[in-house]
Recover the amino acids of this structure.
């Protein structure tokens, strides 16, 4: 009796025959605002205690079928109208020979608010990072890349104006022209890596396919790609996270694995999306990470 009355969790006993309350403890009164005499003999639906009554009906059906319910998250409407979040479990017991439900619930409202705030901060960080990536990518594409292109044109014109007798100088200009052209290609690739316009305009599958094809051609890396059953409508936030993780993982395989090939698989099911990047290279010991890179952390 003491354990029931003074438990830090809300504990209730309801009859299975009519779901009416047989008893509730002190914590239940504190959390819901309902006094024990107001509750006994009434049902949770009479008190409008469950914000979503269908969840209560479903919980009772599961309890009848299996004899227990574990870790059910649900919304509770207090007597004063305030909504709180609870995490509860229930089991069938016998009270004076009558089947009853013993329910135990914890108020997790503050925890859910904290999780929501943390998720909000994470989302803002991702958005800020992407905005900065887009700004740098535009600057590289619209300014730096154009200036490098002009420099390449100037070198080409200088080479054409050089007298035929200046063989050595011509070779040096050709070499400089080649380096500038390669630099321009690398800047464009960096710009696309920082901000994928394909992801924005064509979707995740097209962006992933384009990224793997371009990297494979540019770095002589053989990428075996499989994309299947992706949802037609996928939020930009989810697409972006999958794309960034894929980028980082494939670049890690290119940079550290010591092998010239890797496998990328992006597949969807009815409930989730699975991304796998696999290589058969050198590998690493996750318990002995001595590097100072942020790749794994960012992923």
């Amino acid at each position: 009796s003491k354990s029931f009355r003074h438990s830090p969790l809300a504990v209730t006993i309801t009859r299975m025959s009519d779901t009416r309350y047989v008893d509730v403890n002190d914590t239940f009164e504190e959390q819901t605002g309902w006094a024990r005499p107001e509750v006994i003999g009434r049902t949770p639906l009479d008190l409008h205690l469950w914000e979503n009554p269908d969840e209560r009906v479903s919980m009772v059906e599961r309890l009848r079928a299996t004899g227990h319910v574990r870790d059910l998250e649900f919304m509770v409407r207090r007597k004063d109208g305030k909504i709180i979040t609870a995490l509860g479990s229930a089991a069938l017991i016998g009270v004076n020979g009558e089947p009853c439900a013993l329910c135990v619930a914890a108020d997790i409202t503050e925890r859910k608010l904290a999780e929501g705030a943390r998720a909000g901060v994470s989302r803002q960080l991702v958005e800020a990072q992407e905005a900065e990536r887009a700004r740098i990518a535009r600057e590289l594409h619209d300014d730096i890349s154009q200036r490098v292109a002009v420099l390449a044109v100037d070198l080409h014109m200088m080479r054409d104006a050089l007298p035929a007798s200046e063989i050595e100088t011509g070779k040096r200009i050709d070499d400089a022209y080649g380096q500038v052209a390669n630099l321009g290609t690398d800047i464009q690739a960096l710009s696309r890596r920082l901000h994928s316009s394909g992801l924005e305009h064509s979707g995740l599958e097209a962006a992933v396919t384009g990224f793997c094809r371009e990297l494979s051609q540019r770095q002589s890396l053989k990428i075996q790609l499989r994309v299947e059953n992706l949802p037609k409508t996928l939020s930009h936030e989810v697409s972006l996270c999958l794309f960034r993780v894929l980028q980082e993982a494939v670049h890690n395989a290119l940079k550290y694995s010591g092998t010239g090939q890797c496998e990328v698989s992006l597949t969807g099911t009815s409930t989730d999306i699975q991304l796998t990047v696999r290589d058969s290279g050198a590998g690493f010991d996750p318990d002995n990470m001595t590097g100072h890179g942020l790749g794994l952390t960012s992923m």
In short: The longest helix spans residues 109-161. The CA atoms of residues 42 and 104 lie 18 Å apart.
